[in-house]
Amino acid sequence: MGFNKQTALVLLAFGGSIGMTFVILGCALPAYKVWWPFFVVLFYVLAPVPTIIARRHTSEHGGSNPCLELAVFITMGFVISSFALPIVLARSPASHPLIQWGACYLTLAGNIIVYLTLVGFFLAFDQEEFEYSSW
After folding, report:
1. For the chain, what percent of residues have pLDDT higher than 70?
2. SS3 state of residue 75
3. Which of 16, 47, 50, 85 has a CA positioned 20 to 30 A from the CA of residue 108?
4. pLDDT tops 80 at residue 92
5. pTM metric for this prediction
6. Which segments cross the bilayer (predicted)?
């Protein structure tokens, strides 16, 4: 059973909004009231950029593509950083942690949902099916 593009877009928008809701809850709930975990949104924006740029400049020979491999490496750095940031903020000195563990868990849950949504976007709307160079 295949999804058409409109259904996939609605499901991806729903997934992204659920993930962002978890991140916002981790920041705005009255028990937490700290907006430091919201910095992971910067990683959400930056994570797909290297892969998008590398796909635009790839060549079609056999073997490995160093440009794409570097882009995947940088992308994984952003992904790991978005998971590490809330953990580091929660593990800051015990006398005064920057965020509570509940906020950390909500942010990590939001990370998982948002990155699954990004993977779903790349699977549903693969950039290679369009020929940009045919102009």
Report:
1. 87
2. helix
3. 50
4. yes
5. 0.82
6. 7-29, 35-54, 66-87, 99-125
